[in-house]
Amino acid sequence: MNPTLPDPSVSARGPWDAQPSDNPLADVKQLGMWAAIASLGYVFWIVAVMEMVERLAFYGVRATATLYATRPASEHGLGVTMAAFGTLLMTWNLLQSLVPIFTGGLSDRYGYKQTIFASTVLKCLGYLIMAWWQTYTGFFVGAMFLAIGTAIFKPGIQGTLIKATHRRNSSMAWGIFYQTVNIGGWIGPLIALYMRSHLGWQAVFYTNAAFICLNFLLLLTYREPGLEERLARRERIRAGLEHPPPLWREALAELRKPHLTLYLLIFSVWWLMFPMLWDVLPRYVEDWVDTRPMVTFLFGADGAQNPIVKFFLGMDPAGHRIQPEGIVNINAAMIMLTCFLFAGLSARMRATDSLLVGTLLVVAALALLGATRQVGWVVAALLVFSVGEMLASPKYSEFLGNVAPADKKAMWIGFSQAPILIGWTLEGKLGPLLYHYLSDKDQLARDTLVRQLGWSAESVSTAALPVGEAFRKLVEVTGQSPEALTRELAAAYSVGLTWYAFAGVGLLAAGMIYLYGRWIRRLAQPPSQFGVDRAPQ
Length: 537
Hints:
CATH superfamily of the largest domain: MFS general substrate transporter like domains
CATH topology of the largest domain: Growth Hormone, Chain: A
Number of domains: 2
Order of helices and strands: HHHHHHHHHHHHHHHHHHHHHHHH
Helix content: over 70%
Distance between the termini: 23 Å
Strand content: under 5%
Largest sheet: none
Shape: globular
Number of strands: 0
């Protein structure tokens, strides 16, 4: 089935000047930045705040999950390997991405408010289970509740956003939405870091359960756009005047559209690369990146002593190091502060061009992480990654929302989870697994004990030497300082290879986006007077 081509009457205009009534595949000239901001209504800001609250709680756990799972039991962690943690991530990502594909249409039919309420209940239970049951099994079960709750939450929130905006303010709307989301994504990990440093991991989970309950209060002020139309349609169905096909049949009919199917395929590759920053980087920073030089540069040899500074930079209680959460949080902080500017920039670009440039910047950032362990360059890589993310990630959902049929907005947002289902699920296992074999300090220390010091395989098994204790043992038996030994291991094992592998995946995605952009622009062209499509630009 080919997408419908535009009416020949608009052939005098280029696709950049197309109006909302034209072919949905054509780009639409956006309002200016301030005009677009002024056009955003009350409902938009309510769902933005609800998403911010949800992300605050979610990233309070997700951003610290890698550390919680892989730290040794002696440090109150779960004491599992990165490979084992990858199984949890894979299952978490699979469930969180699979459910919306089938439930997105439920929000369209039965109401956004109802599904948002149900999701908040499930997510609250997930955090409480993690607090009550502090084992790998308990964390796994709690994560599954979070996965299902998030899966139900997304279509209702983003479907509301799409219906509360229009194509001429959509770039700015998605950019600001992404920016407010990252306020939650920034403050959540910092609160979690403070809680686990001062009160323990259980306090992290109780705190996030309390935060997610704020959405119950916000729901009292929420008004669903298009509610009257949805209720009127429900009455027509009840009266037998309308007979909608089953949701699965409607979904399959939409998925047969080639511009949708190819888009989802391309971003399945994209999502195989993109989440490495959150799933693997915290562990990489803890293993290999010495943050003390940056602290010394900023605050002198004595470090930071101001508690407010230590909190917002994500530092340890002594103020001598920036913790992994603080380093990774640079990404959310930059997006929180600047996303509206990059939304204005992306509004001046074709959707596929913005996606391409953003993806190439993300690839460059991943390659830079592989090339160096110096904290300054790691921060630079995070800044480059953040710019790429701001140009690409909001545009991903915006494009789908703009080309989706008016009565299937939430369904198409549900479809947007399919690439996440495929890509992020695979990355959830492959990323930590690859890191385990190529870059994990604990695993490389075990390998060194066997290869260079002649220890037996049994003596370095996790039964004899618990997860997280091998590097300490290597320091003990060699007599070297941890810093010197870290440098030797990094040089001997080329620990950056993990990042190069996923940068290669990103390059493949960038090439596919470029070709898709050329094809979609050709489809958006009006037919010539001879009935033949114009050549792509």
